[in-house]
Amino acid sequence: MEAVTNQKGGVYFLYGYGGTGKTFMWSTLAAALRSKRSIVLTVASSGIASLLLPGGRTAHSKFKIPIPILEKDICKIDKGSDLAELLKLTQLIIWDEAPMAHKFCFEALDTSLKDIMSIDGVPSKEIFGGKVIVFGGDFRQILPVIPRGTRSDIVHATLNASYIWDHCTVFKLTRNMRLENQQTSENSEEVKQFSDWILKVGDGKIAEPNDGIAEIPIPSELLLSDFNDPIDAIVNSTYPNLLNNFKNADYLRSRAILASTIEVVNEINDYVLNLIPGEEMEYLSSYSIDRTEANDNDIFEQLTPKFLHSLHTSGLPNHAIKLKIGTPIMLLRNLDQFEGLCNGT
């Protein structure tokens, strides 16, 4: 708050695992400054995280960060545009789930803000053009996804491998406020043990000492051990009394199944959909081939509709999508961010 009030500029990182109050902090900061008619931009690295922020948008959408992002890239913000003028007047930028984004995203914003805040055509030499920026997140969680990348590639793509990290002042949140508010006298010890175990997994303190490779023993109470059909077992464990709650939005929002492959995702989704009563509708995709930049038209002979329909890959919906009224779906594209219809929501 002092840095914003005194217009000192600065880069800060709020480090805290899930439940420690980062979202509450963002809401409080934004409300306090906006009540003084200050401009605060709230962004996140993912669509779902952006919905939790007051006036939140994805960072790529707000700052027009190129996709894919490469070294030395800059944001697609024209000087003199409405967005450039907005950034000039902005007192604080909050960027949640920052560890998920590639370091080139932050460096592109840094270069762009230095250019936008230039004086007499000379770019600003201050980090982020002298703006106050607060990043937040947890490096124990998902890091930038590098296709076919090694562990070293992933580590070198993170924010703390960028020159920007040298300018960051780090603050830490350590109390799990979410669990403390939910626990009762009966389950307080159980909640504490689970929280401590999760933190040890994230910090790499399970099965110490080790040479970087270790087997992590999972507590028996967290495992499903007695079942004939694993899909049926995990669905019934995660979604008890599904038939009585499949129209309850809070019930669906509070639980999810994380699968290791797209094939398992499809198998679980089909199984759950068959459990839900109602008429099933099937929607098919439509494919067309852009030949404008093709040098060899012979390759198109191999791209038959049957082949295209068989593709199952991340970020691309299946050829056939089956739906029933009331079933939740996830968007893979930004349709209307003002209505919360973002990628990942």
TrEMBL record:
Sequence intervals crossing the membrane: none
Matching Gene3D superfamilies: P-loop containing nucleotide triphosphate hydrolases
Signal sequence range: none
Co-factor requirement: Mg(2+)
Residue intervals of the DNA helicase Pif1-like DEAD-box helicase domain: 2-211
A GO biological process held by the record: telomere maintenance
GO molecular function: 5'-3' DNA helicase activity; ATP binding; ATP hydrolysis activity
Catalytic activity as recorded in UniProt: ATP + H2O = ADP + phosphate + H(+)
Enzyme Commission number, as recorded: 5.6.2.3
Record keywords: ATP-binding, DNA damage, DNA recombination, DNA repair, Helicase, Hydrolase, Nucleotide-binding
Similarity section: Belongs to the helicase family.
The name this protein goes by in its record: ATP-dependent DNA helicase
Organism: Trifolium pratense (Red clover)
